[in-house]
């Protein structure tokens, strides 16, 4: 029994999407550590517990890059090398409670931040991941948590809206990269404009 309050009531019409809670983002020694990212692991676990108990789907995403990809600054992108396939940094955080399928994104060097789709950096063509197929057909409402609030959480939530779900992003369950100061506020604004409940 969990004593901790969750951010929302779970039932079979809800799906919890746990985005990129991986060592490179959530461990202070990770290569793209999101400030205080480690603080979300405990509260996210409580949420997973509540969701699973209520019969809601719980699905995870994992950023999973080749060692060279236009996503990385050294290859023409903007990010330090992170979440390279089969390295410690790409592993889900060891304290994260994994109770559902994991969708890997970026596997073939694709770019893009949403858990629902990836983008070929050369052609710009987007393709779907398996995420939507893993959410119970009964799911109407998505709760998107994890890292980072201004990239993969935001894009996953926006894609969820486009796909016709009601979407919630609880702020206590995410943290922001803030590559530019104020990215957190701008992301929250953008999410709310799109109809996401940022709570
Ligand atoms: C992410 C930057 C680069 C994320 C992934 O998971 O939010 N951010 N790759
Ligand atoms: Zn990445």
Radius of gyration: 16 Å
User: How much strand?
Assistant: 15-25%
CATH architecture: 3-Layer(aba) Sandwich
Distinct ligands: pyrazine-2-carboxylic acid, zinc ion
Mean of residue pLDDT values: 95
The tally of beta strands, per DSSP, is 9
Keywords:
22% helix; two-stranded antiparallel sheet; seven-stranded parallel beta sheet; binds zinc ion; Rossmann fold; 199 residues; 19% strand; globular; alpha/beta
Describe this structure in words.
There is one protein chain. With 199 residues, the protein is an alpha/beta fold. It has one domain (14-198): Rossmann fold (3-Layer(aba) Sandwich). It is 22% helix and 19% strand. Strands 1, 2, 3, 6, 7, 8 and 9 form a seven-stranded parallel β-sheet that branches. It has a two-stranded antiparallel ribbon with strand order 4-5. Helix 4 (152-162) links the parallel strand 6 and strand 7 (166-169). The radius of gyration is 16 Å and the shape is globular. Bound molecules: pyrazine-2-carboxylic acid and zinc ion. Pyrazine-2-carboxylic acid (VGL) binds at residues 20, 63, 79, 113, 147-148, 151-152.
């Amino acid at each position: 029994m969990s004593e901790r309050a969750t951010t929302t009531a779970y039932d079979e019409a809800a799906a919890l999407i746990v985005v990129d809670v991986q060592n490179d983002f959530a461990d202070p020694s990770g290569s793209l550590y999101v400030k205080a990212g480690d603080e979300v692991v405990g509260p996210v676990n409580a949420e997973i517990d509540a969701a699973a108990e209520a019969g809601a789907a719980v699905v995870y995403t994992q950023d999973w890059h080749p060692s060279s990809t236009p996503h990385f600054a050294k290859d023409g992108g903007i990010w330090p090398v992170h979440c390279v396939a089969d390295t410690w940094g790409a592993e889900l955080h060891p304290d994260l409670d994994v109770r559902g399928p994991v969708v890997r994104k970026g596997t073939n060097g694709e770019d893009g931040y949403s858990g629902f789709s990836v983008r070929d950096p050369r052609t710009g063509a987007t393709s779907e991941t398996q995420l939507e197929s893993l959410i119970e057909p009964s799911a109407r409402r998505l709760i998107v948590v994890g890292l980072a609030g201004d990239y993969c959480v935001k894009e996953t939530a926006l894609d969820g809206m486009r796909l016709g779900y009601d979407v919630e992003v609880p702020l206590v369950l995410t943290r922001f990269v803030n590559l530019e100061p104020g990215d957190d506020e701008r992301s929250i604004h953008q999410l709310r404009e799109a109809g996401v409940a940022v709570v």
